[in-house]
Amino acid sequence: MNKKPHLTVAMQQLINQVKAELPLYEPATFICGTNTDCIGCPKKMLEMVDSELCFWENAMKHGRVPKFDELRRFGKLCLSVRRMLIKNKLISDPAMEHVTQHKVSL
Q: How far apart are CA 103 and CA 106, in angstroms?
């Protein structure tokens, strides 16, 4: 039976995954204004994720252990932001890339 990771380890893994997959600091995500056709506001959503990410990095550095609900809530926020970024075509959907690659290879 696989042992589940400690909550601190799980939160750090989530933070690492978010940093690798979301364009937190890319200039294209900071475009904002009335002339954009965004669904939601990528800039504000990424700022919210970055704020939570910085909070948890600092809190864990000072010994705070996240609760399961806090880990779940942060993961849910990141997933929602990821979906919104895909809708705005700021990141690609890995599932769609697989389908496209499959069609091209036929």
A: 5
